[in-house]
Queue: 3 jobs
Job 1
Amino acid sequence: MKKSRLLIWAAVLVLCTACYVLLGKKSSSAETTDSEETDEETVLAVPSDTITGFSFVVGKNTYSFLKNDDTWNYSGDPNFPADADKIENLLSAFSEVSASRVLTDVSDLAQYGLEEPANTIHLTDSEGGEYVLHIGNLNSSTGDYYAYTSDEKTVYTIDSTIPLDFQIGLYDLAKTESFPSIDSTEVSLVEVTSENGLFSAYQDASSNTGWLLSDGSRVYEGDDSKLLSLLDELGSISYQSCLEYDCQNPEAYGLDHPIARIRVRYTEVSANTSVASSEDPSASGENGDAAGGNSEDGENPAAEETTTGDAAGTEVVFLIGIQDESGRYFIQREGTGEVHTVLASALADFLDVDVTSYRSLALAPLSMEQVASLTLTYEGKQYTFEQQETTAQNDGGEDVTSYTCTRNGKTFDADTYQDFFKTARGMNAQSYTDAFPDTDAVCVIQFAQTDGSGRTVSYYPYDDNFYLALVSDDGQDSADAALVNKMDVSTLLAQVQNVIK
C-alpha cells in the first residue's frame, strides 16, 4: 500500500514537471523562434537640432511638422500655433535610442504588434537623411516596447520613453494659453451670470466686511470668509485639454449661448505698492449694470480706484459651454478663439452659486465709531443713547481717551452702554428665511450712522429655538428676515435690562 502511494506521487510529480516545461516553451515560443542578441545596440541616433521634419500617427490620423528657419510649422495648417519648445523636447529622445534586446530573422511581425504598428514615426534631418521607427506592443514583463526601423527582419526592445511621449494629440504640441493663476487675495470682483440669475461679489470700502453682494436688484453685505473660500477655488481651476485654437463654430460647444459667464477682476501689486479701491462692477463688462446696485434700484455705488507704485489690473471673462461625453465642460476665455475643457468639479461651486449662501449673517456689524446714536424700543418705551469721545493729556503728556454717554439727554454710565452696544452689534443670524412675524416685536434697535444712513433690527418670538429678526436699512422698501438663536437673544435682552434701569 505504501509502495503504491509512492508510485502515485511520483507519477504526479512527473506530470507537473512535464506541464511546466511545455508551458515554458509555449510562453517563450514567440521569441525563441527568432535569433536573439542581448547586447545593447543603438537603434537610432539623430541629434534633435538636426531634425527638420517629423510625423507621427494618432489613431487614423498622421500629423506632420516641418522646420523652417528655426520655426516649426504643422503641415496641415500653416496658422497652427506650434510650440517649438515642446517639439524640441519631444525630439530630444532621438539623440540616442538604444535597444536592450535585438531579435533577428523575425518572420512574423504580428506577434510583436508590428504588422499594424501602434505608431510610426518618420524623421528627416538637415542632410536629407530619413529615419523611421515603428512601435508595437508593450512587453508587460519588462516594460519595454517592441520596435523596428527599416529592416522588418530585426525587432528591438526599447524603453517606454518614445512610445509614451508620442501617445499625444495634435494640441499637445500647440502653444496655447493656460488658465490664469489667480490668488484669492488679489480678487476684487467675481460675477457669475447663469440660469440661476446674477451673482456679483465685489470689494467695497463701505461694507463692514469689505465685500458687497448683488443679485441685480438688491445689495447685501458679503461674508468675507465664505467668499474667500469660494475665490480660493479659482486657484484650483486648470484646463484639461485644448480642442481648438481658432474656433469658428462655437455652437458645437454650446458657447454661442453659454450656460454661464464668469467674470473675474483681480489686481496684482508689486513690492512697495499700495492699493486702495472701491470696486464698481459696472465699470466694465456687458452685464455691469446688473452686477450690483443700491438697495433700491440695483445701480452700483460710485467707484474710485487709486494706486501708487507699479500695479496692474486684469479682468477676464470665461464662457462655459455644454459638457462633453466625459462630463467635462467646454470653456473659452472671451476674446480668444481657444476652446478648452475643464473638470466639472472645478466649476461646480461657481455654477451653483447664489447670493443667499454668501451673505453675511451679521445683523448689524457696525463699529462704535460708525454709530452716531442708538435708539432702543422696549415694552413701549424708547431709549436714545449717544456717546461722545474725549481725548486729553495726562500728567505725563500722553493722550488718554475717555467716553461719556447720555440716555435720552441725561448722563448715563458709558461702560454699561458699551457692553450693551457690543452685544447688539455682535448679533448673528443662523440663516435667512421667508417667514414673517405674526406678533409684536419684543425689542427694536435702531442704529443711526454718522454718514446719515440707518439700520433697524427688530426681534420677534418665533419658536422654541429661534427668534425672528427683521433687518431693514433706511430707504429700503422691505426688510430681510433671519432666524436668530434664542439663547443669543436672551443674552441681548439681559443687556437690555441693564440699560433701561
Job 2
Amino acid sequence: MSPNYSADHFRPVLAEILVTRTNGQIAELIDTYDQVFDGLEHDIKAKTSGPFQNLLLSLLRHSRDETELVDEQLAKEDAMKLIKEGEGQKSINESVFNEVIATRNLVQLRLTFDFYHEVADQDIETGIKQEFGGDDEAGFLALIKCVRNSSEYFADLLQNSINGPVVTHELELIRLVVSRSEIDLADIKHAYLEMHHISLEEAIEANTNGAYGEALLALVKGNQ
C-alpha cells in the first residue's frame, strides 16, 4: 500500500523533510514508513524520476555531517567540482551536487554556495536553471531555498497553505505547525511577520475556525 497523495506534493515535502531532519530522525522515519506502506525507497522510485529522484535517494542514506563545523578549503573544493562547463556557460555537475547536498552540514553548504557564486560568477540557483528543467529544477530550487534560510522557507510554505485550497491547506498547516513546533517555530514566526507584515497568529485566526483553528493557535502561541 502507498500513501494517497500526488507526486507534486510528495516531492517537495520529502525533500524538505530529508534536508531538515537529523540522521537519526530520517532512520526512524524510514523504519516507520516501511512498516505502514510499501517502503519509502519504493515510493520515491514510483513517484519521482530523473535527477531529483537521484538526490532523494542520496538523502535517504542519512549520512549528513551533523556538526556545525565549517571547512573553508572543502567548501572551495566542492564549489569548483560543482561547476560544469559547457556550451559557453557554467551549470551544475549533478553527481557532485547530490553528494554535497546529502553529506555536508547546512552551514557548510551555505559557504559552498557562496564560493560557487564567487568562482562561477553566478549564484547556484542560476546554475540549476541552466542544467535542469521542469520538476527537477523546481525541486532543486526549493531545496536550495530551504538550505539558505529554513525560517523564510517555512514561512513561505505557511503563507501558501493559509491561502491555498481548504482541503489541502488544513492538512499542510497542521503538518507544518506540528512538525516545527519543537524545533524552530519561534524563528519561523519572526520570519513570517517580517515577510508578510502580519503575525502568523493573526493570519491563522483570520483563515481558520473551530477546534482546528484553536488547536493551531495554541501551538503557535506556545512558541514565543
Job 3
Amino acid sequence: MPFVITSSPQEISLSGNPIRYKIRCTDPSSMPFMWQGVRVELSTTGYLAFSAGNTMTISFTPPEFKPTVFVTFTSKATPTGILDIPSNPGNYASTSEYWTTIASIIQNHPSIKPYLNVYAFDIGTGMRMVVEAKEYSNDWAVGLTIPSLANYSVQPFPTTNTNIPSNYKVNITVFVEVAYGGDYVNAGSLELQPDADSYIEVDLSSVVDAVIKDTLPSVQTSDWRTVNPLIWDITRRFYLEIWESIGADSSDYDQLTISPTRMAMAGGIAQSLFAAGNYFAQLANNNSLLTWYPNRRSLGTTQPELLAWYNYTGNPISPAVQVVIFYADGSNTTGIIHAAHGITAQDKQVMLIPVGMPLLVSVDANAAQTAVKYTVQVCTVSGGVVTPLSQVRTYFVDASYYEEVHYLLYLNSFWVPAIQRCVGEKESEVEITREITQLLKTYNYTPYFQERYQYQEDWDNITVFHTGYITRAEAQALQELFIYGRVWDITSSGNYPLVLSGKKFSITRTRQNLHSFAIETKRAMEERFWIPEAAPLELGFTLVQDDGSGLTDDSGGLLIEG
C-alpha cells in the first residue's frame, strides 16, 4: 500500500479554520521513504487485538557497551498506567486507530522516547508496528517479543538508506460542491513531496473556503422582513482524489484513492477555540445558534430579527419556535410560531428563522403594545410535546419613538446574517476629488474665458449611521461588523452593499456602561453619475409627455421638470 491517509478532518469543519490531511507515503513493501535506523517490524496476519493480560516487551541495546534496556507492557481492558496498553479495540474507530494508540503509548514511555521511534500503520492485510532506533548506526540492537499473540511475525532490519524514487510526487485534486447536494467542481490541484519522515501534511482550507465564498447565498435579493424561515446555504461537501506518480509509468506507484466525503461550512472561530477541540461536536440544544451576539438585547416593535440555527441532530428537521411573551403585570403567554412552514434543514445545514416582534401576532395580536419582553427557542412539536433544539434567546421590547431608524445587515464570523438597528441621527455628505487644469489665456481673451477647467472628478456619498446607545457586551460583539466589513443597508428599495471607511473603533472604556458608534460608510458601487436616492432602479413605468412643463410617469407623478 504505497500511501495511507493517516489523519483527516472531522465530519464537518469551518472553512476559515485549518482543514488538514496527513498522508504517509511508502514504497511497495509499505516501508516509509526515509533514512532508517536499526529496527524491528511486527506484522500481523489479519487485524488482531491483544487479550487482557497479554504482554509485549521492547528491548534495545545502545552502542558503547551500555546495558540492554527491557520495557514490558501489559494489555488491560482499562489501561491507566504508563506500562498499560488497551486490550479492547471496540473502544476505537478502527483497528488501525487501536494499533496507532498502542504505538503512541509505547513511544511516550520515558525510557523509550529518547532513543526509539515507534509507529504503526495499516498494510492492507493487517497491521505493521515498527520499533526503530533514532540514531543512524548499525551498532544498535532492537528487539520486540509477544509471548501470547498468534498470527504475527517480527523481522529485524539494519539501517536503510532512503528509498524514495527521484521523481516521486503525490497529487491531490479537491472537489467541492457549488451548492448543498449539487454538482461538484474541481477547486484546485496540488503536487506535493513527502517530508523527511515520509509524511505529507496539507491544509486545504483556503481551497475549500474560496469555493464556498464564491457560491454564497445572495444578500441583495433577500427580503429580511420575510415571515418564513429559509435555508442559508453555506454548507458544502468535498472530497479528494489522491494519486502518486514518479514521472514514468510504474505499476508500483499508480495508486489512486478517493477520500471519504467531508463537509465544510463557511466561517471560522478563534484559533484558541479551534485548538480546544471539535467545535461542532459541542453543539447541542443549549448552544446551536450561530452567533456571538449577547443575549437579552432590545428590539424595536417593527425590527427584523433572525436566528441562525445549525442542525446538529443528524436528521432532517423542520423546526418551529416556542415563544413566551411577558407583560408588565408579571403574566405571560406561551405559543408556537413557524409550526407549518414546510421547510426542512438537512443534517448540518443552517436555517434562518425570523423572530422579530411583528411575527408574534399569532401568539398575541397586541404584543407590540403590551409586551415588555419575550423569549424564543428553536424546537420541534409533536403530540403537544415541545423538544428544545437551541438555547433560549431573550428580547426586551423597545416601543420608544425615534426620529430615525435604520437597519444594517452584516455577516458575522459564521457568515450568517445579523441585523443592527441604528436609532441615532443619519448623516450624509458628499466627498469630491477634483482634477483641475489651468489653460493659457489667449491674447484676445474675454471676461468669460475659462482659465481654470475641471476635467475630471471622483466623488462618494458618505453616510454615517449612529447606533444609539448599546450595552458593553453588544459593543464587543459589533467588532464582527467592523472587522469583516460585510455590511448592507436595508432599505425599502433593496439591500445595498456598503464599505466601511473607519479603520479604528473605540470599543469600550472602564466605567462606561453605555456605548455608541458612528459607522461611516460608502456604497460599494461607484455611481459615477449622480441620481436622487429615491430614483427608481428598475424603470418599470412609461414616460408620458405632459403639457410642456415636464415629463411624468403614467401615474401622473412629476419625474423631470421642464
